[in-house]
Design brief:
Layout (H helix, E strand, L loop, with lengths): L1 H6 L13 H14 L2 E2 L2 E2 L15 E7 L2 E6 L5 H12 L7 E4 L13 E6 L1
Antiparallel strand pairs: 1-2, 3-4, 4-6, 5-6
Helix pairs in contact: 2-3
């Protein structure tokens, strides 16, 4: 599952204005919704900026100079989400890695989300 997620960002379109890992992580949620459909329509409308709900989100928060935490509440396995995060982050920071934050709720223990600590 990690490897599948890892290669998803390689096939996604990236806006030219994204120049760093933090901007890339903010874009993950938009890209995620752009690539899912509801009633045949993308779940993110590029023209209006409207985002449909129903598939969860990727949310990120900078914690330090070289650390960003990403919270995922998608229906996909945790390792798939970790792969997407690593694949996205390594486009801008080749040494980036992500580990599950075991101190936070995790879907592996029945929670609704997982938090990944990314460092580089």
């Amino acid at each position: 599952m990690f490897q599948i997620g890892r290669y998803i960002p390689d096939n996604a379109l990236w806006p030219e204005e994204i120049k760093d890992v933090e901007a890339a992580f903010r874009f993950i949620d938009v890209a995620y919704h752009m690539n899912h459909r509801l009633n045949g329509a993308p779940m993110f409308d590029v023209q209006t900026g409207a985002m449909a709900e129903g598939i969860g989100h990727f949310r990120c928060a900078r914690v330090g100079k070289r650390r960003i935490d990403v919270v995922c509440d998608t229906p996909y396995p945790s390792e798939n989400d970790r792969g997407v995060i690593v694949g996205c982050g390594r486009r801008f920071e080749p040494t980036l890695d992500a580990v599950l934050d075991e101190s936070q709720p995790t879907r592996l223990r029945g929670a609704r989300s997982c938090t990944f600590i990314t460092t580089w």
